[in-house]
Design brief:
The chain is mainly alpha-helical. It is built from six helices and no strands. Bound molecules: heme C (HEC).
């Protein structure tokens, strides 16, 4: 897996070209008609990925975990690109914890993953605090709410 270059690359895009993502994407011929998701909706998606990421890694489904960390990363970059009120540095400071999570997934290392996941979660809350959203307090999930999705790798139980 090559998560490293991918994460660094996306963050560079976020830092350098605030409108790039808004102007590209599938079947968007007229940028004035494009759908811009609400920030709270992007965050709800980030929350879902955050939860699934945890349960994928807990079930040692590293393939799924790698997928979820990419999805989560994209949610956060999208938030920074679409909402200029979010300081880009609030997102770029998440680069280190995101990378640590990605490295732990690459290494299939549950211990490192748990530590990195905690740091990442701290990063969620730092931004919430700095943007007067301290009441949105994120933690490691304690219950897996996605009963219709199988988290262990296929063939195992
Ligand atoms: C760069 C800043 C920033 C980061 C990083 C960030 N958030 Fe947020 N988040 C916000 C802001 C701003 C809001 C409030 C949005 C609003 O007022 O509509 C928010 C709101 C939320 C909400 C509430 C959504 C709702 O409608 O109930 C959740 C859940 C959430 N974030 C999850 C996360 C998770 C999980 C992470 C980390 C993986 C994270 N956020 C990282 C800025 C951030």
């Amino acid at each position: 897996m090559k998560l490293r270059g991918w994460i660094v690359g996306l963050l560079m895009v976020a830092a350098a070209a605030p409108l790039a993502m808004a102007q590209s994407g599938p079947s968007r011929s007229d940028s004035s008609e494009q759908y811009v998701p609400r920030l709270g909706d992007i965050m709800n998606n980030a929350q879902i990925r955050h939860i699934k990421l945890w349960y994928a890694a807990k079930a040692a489904n590293w393939e799924l975990a790698a997928f979820e960390i990419r999805q989560l990363q994209e949610n956060l970059v999208e938030a920074a690109l679409l909402y200029s009120g979010i300081p880009v540095t609030n997102v770029t400071t998440l680069a280190a914890p995101l990378q640590a999570v990605a490295d732990a997934i690459d290494a299939k290392d549950s211990k490192k993953f748990a530590k990195a996941f905690g740091d990442l979660t701290g990063g969620c809350n730092s931004c919430h605090q700095s943007m007067q959203r301290a009441f949105v307090l994120i933690r490691t999930p304690t219950e897996q709410p996605f009963g219709d999705q199988v988290f262990p790798p296929q063939g195992k139980k």
